[in-house]
Amino acid sequence: MEKILLNRVHLKNSRSIDVYLAHDGYKGLKKALGMTPQQVVDEVKLSNLRGRGGAGFPAAMKWGFAAADPKQPKYLLCNADEGEPGTCKDRQIMEGDPHELIEGMVIAGYAFGAEHSYIYLRAEYPKVVSILETAIAEAEARGYLGANILGSDFSFSIRVHRGAGAYICGEETALIESLEGKRGQSRIKPPFPVNVGVFGLPTVVNNVETLANVPHILLKGGAWFAGIGSPKCPGTRIISLAGHVNKPGYYELPMGITFREVIYEYGGGIRGGRKLKAFIPGGASASCLVPEHLDVQMDYDAVAAAGSMLGSSAMTVMDDTTCMVKVAARLMRFFVHESCGKCTPCREGTEWLLKLLDRIEGGEGKLGDIDMLRELCGLISGKTFCPLGEGALGPVQGTVKYFEDEYRAHIEQKCCPLKERHVRQ
Amino acid sequence: MAPAVFAAETLNKIEEIMARYPTRRAAILPVLYLAQEEFGCVDDRALMAASKVLGVSKADVYGVATYYSMFETKPFGRNVIHLCDNLACSLLGAESLQDHLERKLEIQMGQTTTDGRFTLKNAECLGACAQAPVMLVNDDFYEGLTDAKIDEILAKYE
Amino acid sequence: MSGNDLINVTFNDKAYQVPAGLSVIQAADRLGICIPRFCYMEKLSPLGGCRMCLITVQGIPKLQTACTTPARDGMVVITESEEINEARKAMLELQLAQHPLDCFHCDKATRCDLQDLTYLFGDIQHRYDFPRKELETIYENPLIERNLARCVHCERCIRVCEEIQGADAISASRRGRPTEMREIPGGGECQHCGHCIDVCPVGANLDRLFSHRGRPFQMEAGGSICPYCGCGCTLSLNTREGRIMRVWPRGHEGVNHGSLCARGRFGWGFVNHPERLARPRIKKNGQLVEVDWDEALLFVATRLEKIIREHGAQSVGGLGSARATDEANYLFQRFMRCVVGNNNIDSSARFGYTAGLMGRLGVAGEVREATLDDVRRAARLLVIGADPVETNPILGLAMKAAIRRGATVVVADPRTTLTSRWASQHLRIRPGSEVPLILALGGRLLKEKELSAFSTDNLVTRIGLTTDAVADLAGMLEGEGAQQTVVLVGRGVTQAPYGASAVATLLRIVASRRASYLLTVDRNNERGSCEAGVLPDRLPGLAPLSERERFEKVWGQKVPEQPGLSAYEMLQAAREGKLRAFYIMGENPVEDFPDTGFVEQALSSVEFIIVQDLFMTPTAVMADVVLPSASFAEKAGQFTNLEGQVQSYTAVIPPVGEARPDARILVELSRKMGKGFPHKNILEVREEMNGLVPLQESKRQLSANGLSHTVPGPEVQWGPIEDSDFPYLLLTTASLYRNGAESNLAVGLLKGQEKAALRLHPADAESVSVSEGDSVIVTSKTGEIQVSVRVDDEIAPGTLQLAEGFADANPRTLLGHALDPVTRAPMARYVQVKMRKI
Ligand SMILES: Cc1cc2nc3c(=O)[nH]c(=O)nc-3n(C[C@H](O)[C@H](O)[C@H](O)COP(=O)(O)O)c2cc1C
Ligand code: SF4
Ligand code: FES
Questions:
Q1: Alpha carbon of C128 to those of A356, C96, C454: distances in Å?
Q2: Do B66 and C173 touch (CB under 8 A)?
Q3: pTM of the full predicted structure?
Q4: Residue B150 sits in the same domain as residue B90
Q5: pLDDT tens for residues C535-575?
Q6: Which residues form the domain of B29?
Q7: Per-residue pLDDT tens over the stretch A341-383
Q8: Is the peptide bond before A191 cis (omega within 30 degrees of 0)?
Q9: What is the secondary structure of B28-49 as a DSSP string?
Q10: Which residues of C touch B57 (CB under 8 A)?
Q11: Cβ partners under 8 Å of residue C421, min gap 6
């Protein structure tokens, strides 16, 4: 299968604008500028490109809403906060092919009438700041960015804004708050960012991977894109594959491929010939799945039907030496650390969950603790302010569902029942 | 106590940064990064200085500075090690690496060596899970870590 | 959609109509449908964090928060169901999980939303079986304690501090469960309004003065009016066994809409102060000794009668009080006019409101006076020589509310004040330039020949502005928008030479542009005392003496025809030996009047002084008779606030010792002097007063007149004349923490700020080699004080700023008392001084 997003990253000097130009670079933009903004939106609509940040919202629809709002100026925010544990796909694009993102942003800006944009980059990617800034300077120097792009009336700026270490800032309204210089906490909706976004103006927030697809769609046509992979969610996805596989890495694969293919063909199977115990299909908030789900197809609906979610398509694979209580506790610690603290269920509930998990894992669990975990999830579920709190339940719900025996064994044996463990106490 | 103002050079940089945003307040994160660099951490003086240039109340600056993990309100070492111990790294041995680091540097997580050379911190996922286990020393990424590799890496930092 | 559109909503199967634009919780509140909450508060922006207000909206599967969901036409809402109750109980169980459950010794117990809701739901489970958070009380603030473990993270305190008080003193720090609502390290931003105490639904923010002084249900609450500044805030005095325990606002009632300042909330300590005067005293062998009331009053009567007999009625002077009730002032002027027989009546309002009043009397016809609500709604505010944030803090809040709604605020003031920091533009005019600035505006806007000289470039430069800046300022009073402009005028104008003329000019501009104005008023009843007739040339209702017949009829006593002396004219007369007796009711000239040395000298030449007060003030020390009067909490009466609102209140606690209300003392004294007033109680006094001064009478008098004021020529010396022996210019300011002598005896205010501080520019500090906290001696031609310094780079170099009101360093000692030709009040806003390190 031919790559789309990562088709240049292996080239020598892949970041440089010359290499980019030599390989179809900025051709999509040229084409776009020859069209009306509405035509660009229509083309992307035809492609059925859906957001890659997690929610899968159709990109063209978001642009259309922002374009329809009369307020000016409008902003495009590129969500490069990539904080979901296990996820490192956006980094591949930004490090390996920054112009792909830049071109996508300029086209998006043209399509819905934005003049300014920011790339909200997670703090943990300090080197990417200069990579992006160099690329931006190159693009400006060649007239692909800045005032009157390629001689047109369209002007567009991109600034890199480095976050400061808060996972919640990946949520679009928290990102907006953070960019405005506030504590990054999610906002009350409505109003939605497309109407009242950053600095009170119409704003589109798109993920890096979403935007990087745009030049290709413009160049090769929406129909071409719509024909790739799964019809409901066409295109490829960059899958970050980590954990106990022989070949961890980033794989750009069409949607609709099965987990078995990902883990055993691309990932080269489980390390040391061990048995697969569980895998997380889409980032920390996704409930884990077990070997019986290996033939589930990677697309939003199929994964949801299997009781999890595709999310950021970050896969973490665990072999039979893994203590699943420990996994749940580790992921819960992440959510406790990242809960913004605004709403009661997330702030209080995640910490309580973590205490229970730690207690069970440490061999001090009580018999009722497993039920308590379930009930506590019930207390929290559906009542949090933003999806972070709901997502925090994923690791508990999955592991309790598939590995209740392991939980029980911890409590009964007052220690971890696994003889050989990768995850240490 | 040194006055709670930025050096002239930093002020120039700040002006330049502020020009990128429609409000002064939006520059708060970049300004806090600069303040942390100049004052050694985001302490009381740094807060005052930032509050002044940004025209944002001290309370708001404080609220922001303490919200984000990247800012320290107490002084820290010349080199900061962020060892990822999130799931992927943890599955591949991050915790034994942590033991190694703690033993070698003779400090616990969250502490700074007595000579001020290193501060050791845990990080949530650093976004390099496919090369786990990983750590960040200042701005440099190190992947596929082992005890031996860590020893080599630490030697590079003064 | 217009503001009064109604929409249809269904709550729990019943159809209702509510105004459009509300959230579901607002609609429910208006309909009396109870939805529990922690974080929502009508006056604050919604947060949506506590998740207690969960409801079901038909058509949406998930529960929604009522506080963040807009009420829409046709919406069907369920506020109670099994699912909703379970959800709310879940939130309570989570809130209670780590709560210390230390209700036994929490001051909030029985008045706590967490307790109430837990009780309401009854069967909440407590399954959390890990160690709870230890109670951790933070005492960083001298007046407010913060118990972080009790916090329910509703962030009401943060929001009220930012959105209403504008102090930004507290912030949410850190993230997630460790989030703490507390002051930033170093603190210093808190203005001690205590609003965070009121809004806290639990015991996380508490009043330290109140700490363990009683359970909420042991408190009795009585409504009152704040005795400090001219805002006239409504208070609720919480008392127990006849003593004040704490002070709250009364819900959203009153001009203050539920806000208070440090003085209102924490300034009550003087009421039950151990030094309160409990019995009358008279001087015997040079000593003031306690006597009973009968003896004291008889003594006063005999001495006064003798002096009047021997030296004539003109030899007696009287100071009514800018702090006493309307009724007491009314009786006081009647006492002076009818019992003593002269018009020598004045008060400390002479230095503030009176000058403004004289200015107002110089304009015939209607001039729109703004209310606090008008200020809240104003689109532009022009603040000249005033610092409402410190002088009249609730007016300051009204200004901040306007700013939050987008109002432009321009402040013309030589000082750096809390108000100037809020300004969209601070025009730092030269000291003493308030009047020429107003006249220059007049020159532009009124097109009158005698004012034209003021808009010349030369004069404008002397003000310290550019012609363009003055033009911009004039622009605020031009065009359609001028109707939404409110001009705030303070003592920077009224105490300046020709201040009254300037006010008259300004009000003519205001009237011609249909703008409105408001005078800041330092003391609570300056306006009421004037309107009650405590003026040497005006009867109650501001009636001129020529209308005295109307009064004589009711009083059955003669009113002298000749205007009397104003305050400083009386002091002048005293120094010349022409004043033999002085009756001072509730004023403290030795501390409170400019040029204290002069005042003391003048009073020491008076043969017989009567002082009626709460405390043994420096003035009382000089008296021959001291009559203990009841404090505001111990008597009934009415005050007239800066907007002209008359507000009555009743006694909440019995007076300390044998102290008596001023009005009662005056009635009894009149009887002892054989010209007894007939009143049996305060209501009869009020009735008589209201009969003579019908509603709006003062307003009618205001517009009827049209005194003519001389407009000074441009050649007048505005501002100080340089004097190399006294190289610094000391500018007086107001302080949130002091307002009159009582404030120095209120423990809460002492905790807020213990001592005066001289604010100066770093360069000036350096030139006398002092740094923050060091003490200096400041000397003027008239006096000398010692004070510690606070270095502040926002103060204009060469100027020093010192707040009035601190007993330990009183700038009035330094001021001169040259009298303004119009108002006959000392022009006392600044003085040249020198300074040296100790
Ligand atoms: C807790 C949380 C974290 C998120 N983190 C990210 C992130 O790191 N990167 C991202 O692109 N989207 C993230 N999202 C999704 C964004 O809110 C938003 O949907 C996305 O940026 C929209 O872009 P798209 O339409 O291109 O997918 C997160 C959402 C939540 C609730
Ligand atoms: S679920 Fe609540 S506490 Fe958690 S991150 Fe979202 S708003 Fe913050
Ligand atoms: S009152 Fe609605 S969430 Fe708190």
A1: 10, 9, 76
A2: yes
A3: 0.95
A4: yes
A5: 999 999 999 999 999 999 999 999 999 999 999 999 999 99
A6: 8-67
A7: 999 999 999 999 999 999 999 999 999 999 999 999 999 999 9
A8: yes
A9: HHHHHHHHHHHHSSS-HHHHHH
A10: 162, 168, 189
A11: C794
- A394 in contact with ligand 2, CB cutoff 6 A: no
Chain A, chain B: beta-carbon pairs less than 8 Å apart:
143
- Subunits with 3+ Cβ pairs within 8 Å of C are A, B
Instruction: Choose among C174, C175, C189: nearest Cβ to B59.
Output: C189
Beta bridge partners of C799: C729
Domains, chain C, in order of start with CATH, read 6-80 (3.10.20.740), 106-115+126-270 (3.30.70.20), 281-349+525-694 (3.40.50.740), 354-519 (3.40.228.10), 728-837 (2.40.40.20)
Quick check: B59 and C168 CB within 8 A?
A: yes
CA of A342 to the centre of ligand 2 (A): 6
Residues B117, B149, single domain; the answer is yes
Q: Is C48 on the interface with A (CB under 8 A)?
A: yes
Ligand 2 pocket: which of A171, A183, A185 to mutate (most atoms within 8 A of CB)? A185
Nearest to C90 among A338, A355, A383 (CB): A383
Closest CA to C467 of C477, C475, C476, C457: C457
Residue nearest to atom 8 of ligand 2 (CA): A340
| Ligand 2 centre distance from Cα of residue A386 (Å) | 5
A contact residues 378-417, partner B, Cβ 8 Å cutoff: none
Do C56 and C77 touch, CB atoms closer than 8 A? yes
Whether B124 and B149 map to the same domain: the answer is: yes
Q: Is A181 on the interface with C (CB under 8 A)?
A: no
Element (H, E) at C197: helix C195-199
Q: Is the Cβ of A182 closer than 8 Å to some Cβ of chain C?
A: no
Cα–Cα distance for residue pair C417/A109, rounded to 1 Å: 46
Q: Is ligand 3 within 6 A of the CB of residue C50?
A: yes
Asked whether the beta carbons of residue B60 and residue C186 sit closer than 8 angstroms, the reply is no
Determine, for residues B44 and C175 on separate chains, whether the beta-carbon distance falls below 8 Å: no
Q: Are residues B90 and B151 in the same domain?
A: yes
Q: Would an 8 Å CB–CB cutoff place C189 in contact with chain B?
A: yes
Asked if B20 and B43 sit in the same domain, the reply is yes
Q: Is A84's CB within 8 Å of B125's CB?
A: yes
Q: Are residues B89 and B61 in the same domain?
A: no
Q: What is the complex's ipTM, to 2 decimals?
A: 0.95
Ligand 1 pocket test target in A90, A205, A209, A335 with most atoms within 8 Å of CB = A205
Pair (B12, B59) in one structural domain: yes
Q: Report whether C581 contacts C315 (CB < 8 A).
A: yes
d(CA C377, CA C404): 10
Given CB atoms, is A240 within the 8 Å cutoff of chain B? yes
Residue B88: give its domain's CATH number: 3.40.30.10
pLDDT along chain C (838 residues), means of 10: 80 98 98 98 97 98 97 98 98 96 94 97 94 88 96 98 96 96 89 97 98 94 97 97 96 95 98 97 96 98 97 98 98 98 97 94 92 97 98 98 97 97 96 94 89 80 89 91 95 93 95 96 97 97 95 96 97 97 97 96 98 97 98 97 96 98 98 96 96 84 77 82 94 96 96 97 97 97 97 95 96 94 90 96
Cα separation, C670 vs C687, in Å, equals 19
Q: How many CB atoms lie within 10 A of CB C365?
A: 11
- Asked whether residue B72 is domain-assigned, the answer is no
The alpha carbons of chain B give a radius of gyration, in whole angstroms, of 18
Helix (H) or strand (E) holding C299: helix C293-311
Mutate to test the interface with A, among C25, C85, C94 (most CBs of A within 10 A): C94
